[in-house]
Amino acid sequence: MITRTTTNMMMQNAQRNLQTNMAALARLQEQASSQKAITRPSDDPTATADSLRIRAEQRATEQYGRNIDDGTGWLTTIDSALGTTTTLMNRVRDLAVQGANDGAMSPTAKQAIVTELEGLKAELLNVANTKYQGRSVFAGNSDAATAFDAASYAYAATGATVERRISAHSTIRVDADGAATFGAGPGSVFALVDQIAAELTGGTNIGPQLGAIDAHMTNIREQQAIVGTRHAQILRAEETHMERTVSLEGQRAGVEDIDIAEVILDLQLQEVSYQTALAVTARVLQPTLMDFLR
């Protein structure tokens, strides 16, 4: 069967081909101006799904980064507080050793030690009530204004700990156990300093209290080691987070961004192709009815 080719068919085919070339040219121009490979989901549904997934992971990773920064702030504050506590306790022990030699000390010297001990206790209380962004770092998840009461030395923590999620599968505790560090109530380091001062004022030998001081110092060092371990963990998480951030951005760019040099080259080739198609179509459709009647 012979198919008859008419002028109308030629015009329709030419128009369809020109429209196809124009659509390709418009798509390349849009990519070059937006510098994005995907401007609407219909451009590439599969790439669009990948883009949404990657961006969701990026948002989660950004939140993990904020959690890591906050956790680092907590642990840095606690580490500094524990370092100050160790310095203060060393001074308390030195004064207790001096006070234990009560036979060679005058009442004035004893009173000077008592006065300094009271000042050290006040500093220890201040350190134990250290806050980060308005929250006590030694009081767990408690809403109390202070971790330790200044009068009774009672501990205000509720038992719940403060944790931060640093990845999809891991969390880290960022507060410190105040009771394990300083003790609580009559068994606290604050009550111990009060007792040493009272015994020194009353003329009692405070030598036996050196063992209690050493026990508290051991507890403080243990807590400092625990906090140091967590700090090292969160620093490693920070490095992993940075690598993950870079990796996700590379994946996003691979899906969404274009190679501008390649697109410009394709655009120039498409422009040449479109101009050629216009010229060819103009020559093909140039004959009129008069040409056929000749």
Characterize the structure shown:
Helices cover 69% and strands 4% of the residues. It contains 8 helices and 4 strands, in the order H-H-H-E-E-E-E-H-H-H-H-H. The strands form 2 sheets. A two-stranded antiparallel sheet has the order 1-2. The longest helix has 56 residues, at 45-100. The mean pLDDT is 85.
For the largest sheet, list the strands in their spatial order. 1-2
Helix share bin: 55-70%
Number of helical regions? 8
Summed over residues and divided by their number, the pLDDT gives a mean of 85
Strand content: under 5%
Q: State the end-to-end distance.
A: 29 Å
Biggest beta sheet attributes? 2 strands, antiparallel
Note the quaternary state here: single chain
- What overall form do the CA principal axes indicate? rod-shaped
Rg on CA atoms, Å: 39 Å
Helical/strand content category: mainly alpha
